[in-house]
Amino acid sequence: MEPKIKEKIPLKGIRARIATKMTQSWTNAPRVAEIVLINMENAKKAADAQKQDGVTINDLIIKSCALALKKQPLMNSAIIGEEILVFESINVAFAVALDEGLITPVIPDADALDLKSLAAKREDVANRVRAGQRSADILTGGTFTITNLGGFGIEIFTPIINYPQCGILGVGKALQRPVVEDGKVVPQLNMYASLVFDHRIIDGAPAAKFLNEIKTGLEKPETLI
């Protein structure tokens, strides 16, 4: 017995582009995931201290990622044809969930922006895509992508690479979890971050160094200023 069809949804527009891109990624990029737990106590304090400037924890994550890309340039690359192109520009894309699908506006030269400027740029491009703008200046040129499902209560996930970029960072929900410090169990605000990368471009050890650079930046946010 065939199931009854409730609705037929045309695969077109943003949904069709997402389908094509995800199929390309899944088919072409042999992916590996690495996951780390990050102490977010200091990052929260730093974000709270700059709240009046519009700075959020997301901005600290973007900044830490951008600086880590500078130290591990192979992660800031893509395979185009028969070459690995390592990009000089560090243009961080971040996922914005819309009713019609996921879209990834870009923050150009994120490594060169101070946190206040980065926060303003993030807010600007996010608002523009939510308002329906789809211009090339905010949607093209990304060299690495961050996607954050923490706001939806997701703790750990392994996202699909935004092909042909080398990698993507999946950010989970920051929660108070018990940890052991000096032999005692204490509460700590922490979150899981998942790095998924194209193993054709980079191996596990340098990818782990990249992920740990992000971790260090968030645990020592004074290094991001």
Explain the overall architecture:
By secondary structure, this protein is of the alpha+beta class. Helix content is about 35%, strand content about 25%. Strands 1, 4, 7, 8, 9, 10 and 11 form a seven-stranded mixed beta sheet that branches. Strands 2-3 form a two-stranded antiparallel sheet. α3 crosses α4 (about 115-130) and α3 crosses α6. The chain is globular and about 60 Å long. The mean pLDDT is about 95.
CATH homologous superfamily caption: Chloramphenicol acetyltransferase-like domain
Give the low-confidence spans.
Answer: none
What percent of residues are in strands?
25-35%
What percentage of residues falls in helices of 4 or more residues? Answer: 25-40%
Task: Count the E strands.
Answer: 11
Please give the CATH architecture.
Answer: 2-Layer Sandwich
Overall shape: it is globular
The class by helix and strand makeup works out as alpha+beta
The number of helical runs is 6
CATH-assigned fold name: Chloramphenicol Acetyltransferase
> Quaternary arrangement of the chains shown?
single chain
In sequence order, what are the helices and strands, one letter per element?
Answer: HEHHEEEEEEHHEEEEH
The largest β sheet comes out as: 7 strands, mixed
Measure the end-to-end span. Answer: 62 Å
If you average the pLDDT, what whole number results? 96
Q: Gyration radius, to the nearest Å?
A: 18 Å
Main CATH class: Alpha Beta
How many individual domains? 1
